[in-house]
Amino acid sequence: MKRREFITALGGAAAWPVLAHAQQSVLPVVGFINAGFSEPWIDAALRKGLSETGYVEGQNVTVEYHWLEGQYDYMPTLVADLVRRRVAVITTSATPLAALAAKAATATIPIIFSAAGDPVQLGLVASLARPGGNATGINYFSSEVVTKRLRLLHDLVPKAVRVAVLINPENTSTANPTLRELHDAAPAIGLRLQILNATTISEIDAAFASLSNDHPDALFVGGDTFFYSRRAQIATLALREKIPTVFGNSDAVTAGGLIGYSTDLAEVVRLLGSYTGRVLKGEKPADIPVLQMTKFILAINLQTARALGIEVPSGLLSIADEVIE
């Protein structure tokens, strides 16, 4: 989405005809924010969660989908618009930055979030069991499993010494904890890190151009909504450069990445829908405990491994949840 198009979309909400606005206001409005690109499975998972609490989009609830396509700087403007229009619930997916912006903008509109980091440390809730305030949601531990991902990569490429790390510096709530975890874990495994920043498609291309000249032993792709939306680009470029990769999602492995380790992202969004429905029914976010995801998915692409000349240990294959042949 281009900047002009995004701003026009925001302005258009205020310019709706009075009759159309009156018809929309009959149903409660959920403002759904995702920092990445539109993905059909996200809509489907959210609707499934809503339906489990008795809400069907277009019948008894309206969902406004907002895709920021990696442009994090628009988040405060979008949130301010949703607060001004007094939507029933603000539901945020994939990055806590949107929830933090919403918390800063309103203390009354319920906020349902998914967060990779600790929601207490981020300042989203007072505690996991009793969130307090107007926010609750799902914690999916993306940052906390950084060390596990690094060790899995090392298990697959034991001779690796230099590992490049692709980070989106604009997504500070995820990038900063990831870098801390990596800098703590790498020396113990015997790895040296090379940090590469990318916030746009062209910067991803530029990062791989530098990797082509200074070939690392492996690539760690930081958890980020924008990187998720560009998973095919990253996986294809890495395979072209013969660089083994580890991702924070299994979809990137399907797209050609070597290995991925994460929670079930579709399940996270389904739970967001369910939590949103509970709040629409009258429950208060302050009284709904933050749900912590406990199931993780290990995915391995054997076709990519063969293309890279990597033999996957049988022990690792035996514990993989998804194996791409």
Describe the structure.
The chain is an alpha/beta fold. It folds into two domains: about 5-140 and about 265-295, Rossmann fold (3-Layer(aba) Sandwich); about 145-260 and about 295-325, Rossmann fold. It has helices at about 5-15, 20-25, 40-50, 75-85, 95-105, 120, 145-155, 170-190, 200-215, 225-230, 230-240, 250-255, 265-280, 300-305, 315-320, and strands at about 30-35, 60-65, 90-95, 110-115, 135-140, 160-165, 190-195, 220, 245, 260-265, 290, 295-300, 320-325. The strands form two sheets. It has a seven-stranded mixed β-sheet, sandwiched between helices. It has a six-stranded parallel β-sheet with strand order 2-1-3-4-5-11, with helices on both faces. α8 links the parallel β6 (about 160-165) and β7 (about 190-195). α3 crosses α13 (about 265-280) and α7 crosses α8 (about 170-190). Residues about 1-10 and about 10-25 have low confidence and may be disordered.
* SSE-based structural type: alpha/beta
Low-confidence stretches: 1-9, 11-24
| CATH architectural grouping of the largest domain | 3-Layer(aba) Sandwich
Strand order of the largest sheet: 7-6-8-9-10-12-13
Number of domains: 2
CATH topology (level 3) name of the largest domain: Rossmann fold
Rg, rounded, reads 20 Å
Shape: elongated
Distance between the termini: 35 Å
- Looking at CATH, the homologous superfamily of the largest domain is Response regulator
> Major beta sheet, specifics?
7 strands, mixed
Number of strands: 13
Helix content: 40-55%
Order of helices and strands: HHEHEHEHEHEHEHEHEHHEHEHEEHHE
H/I helix tally? 15
The mean pLDDT is 90
What fraction of residues sit in β-strands? 15-25%
